[in-house]
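Can anyone check this?
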Amino acid sequence: MTGNPTDSSIADILLWAVLPYVMVAVFVTGIAWRYRYDQFGWTTRSSELYESRLLRIGSPLFHFGLVFVAAGHVLGLVIPDEWTAALGVTETRYHYVAYVLGGLAGFCTLVGIGILLYRRRTRGPVFMATTRNDKMMYLVLLATICAGLWTTVAANSFHEGYDYRETVGPWFRSLFVFQPEIHLIASAPLTYQVHALIGIVLFILWPFTRLVHAFSAPVKYLFRPYIVYRSRDPEGSPRTEVPGRGWR
């Protein structure tokens, strides 16, 4: 542990040096256990059959917005500011782009999950298919989005802004080398700490909710055998055409 560990309180050590590794252990173990013993539960439990109009609006907003939000987190937390500076991206330009694009992506994600929650609460069959785990997951996910949007937009709109790439980013990267820079995250504004903690809770809950479908991809579909459909000729003669490819 670098910095000055004696300056870190027990609470800071537990929150910023112990809890992240607990999260990783629960996340990896939970995903592996779920995949091994709960294959039938590894699903989104789609409710499209119950209601599709709101789903067609809310789902793309939420998922595409979330992709850009995740990309922004990778750029801001994983990529050191020295790298972007070497590419000629000034700190002012970086924060302006992060403020505009990050705010737009966060807003789309928030609107999308708002529509999905409204649909789930007001459509009887959809609400009946909602489990307790789903309710907790939606609550934590909504809190994570709101906290992130607040730190991205509100904090930079009403204040001079905060360069989290000098504190939160280095702390995040220090976890990967098992030398947590506790003093960096502990000195960050409370809004960033709250956002980080809610995000940690979300990843702890992840393996035990429908969020596991994020790790599913229909790769086998690309290599499955063709499905040949045979039909009867009205006159009883066999068909001689060669079937085309499955997607034609």
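Reply from J.R.: I decoded it. The chain has a mean pLDDT of 85.
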